[in-house]
């Protein structure tokens, strides 16, 4: 049986991985309570002690705006931890799957980003995630880095979909930015893609991948779709109108990429399957979340 060590087991993607990875091997799943990554002294030794065949890192500092005021912590979780995991993988002869982000790009392109497109993160979060990618690549050859984007799921903490459902229940009207385009991606689909990639990982297939759902949409259009689908499913909504606004009208501490669609061709080729369309996955997530939502 393959031994798998999963980090970030309580996160949106981590919780889905915890459910799917046992189909591939024996899983040890660590959340914050098992190992606080903010003080990573001893991380390498603790990982090596497990002698995993595969390390899957779903842990991250994901508070994009807060990262601007906590750059050291963001760097620790997003760059130092992956580096130590890659060093541990190298010393046990194991493989590492690490998750990264579309925010390594500046979003000034107007066609989907290929895996080798030039990176240029706009803020601390993106910089820390890029540093993590580079540290992994320096420390081992036996890695897969999977960049994803606009992640939401029924499990784990808040996300855009949950925020829209809450605001839609409270307000009559809402403004949502239309000048940022990307691909909403269901955490469940990311976990399925990672599980499908595991048996395919070898000298020919190590490297960088992009995985998102298919399609591209603005946050505004995504919000409209969320409300349409949620209404069909009977979520309580009092909202009557969604207004498209610009990023300038909704200032945040970190600038976001204006366009961050990722080209997923490489993974689609290796897995011999294309990712589900974002709207089909949104519908499935909303059905699942209906049972949890109060
Ligand atoms: N969310 C997005 O929109 C998005 C977009 C692109 C890429 N990604 C990438 O996708 C991956 C998964 O993201 P996600 O949305 O699943 O993130 P998430 O829900 O925020 O999960 C991250 C997990 O990391 C854990 N973590 C953070 N600091 C820790 C610490 N000091 N010690 C131990 N654990 C710690 C968190 O623990 P707690 O639960 O205890 O806080 C959380 O469970 C990440 O690599 C992220 O960068 C996410």
UniProtKB/TrEMBL annotation:
Keywords in alphabetical order: NADP, Oxidoreductase
The keyword DNA damage is assigned to this record: no
Coiled coil: none
Single GO MF descriptor: dTDP-4-dehydrorhamnose reductase activity
GO BP terms, alphabetized: dTDP-rhamnose biosynthetic process
EC number, as in UniProt: 1.1.1.133
Pathway named in the protein's UniProt entry: Carbohydrate biosynthesis; dTDP-L-rhamnose biosynthesis
Residues annotated as domain RmlD-like substrate binding: 2-289
Major enzyme class: oxidoreductase
Pfam family, one: RmlD_sub_bind
Similarity comment text for this entry: Belongs to the dTDP-4-dehydrorhamnose reductase family.
Function: Catalyzes the reduction of dTDP-6-deoxy-L-lyxo-4-hexulose to yield dTDP-L-rhamnose.
Protein's name in the database: dTDP-4-dehydrorhamnose reductase
Organism: Leptothoe spongobia TAU-MAC 1115
Chain's gene name: rfbD
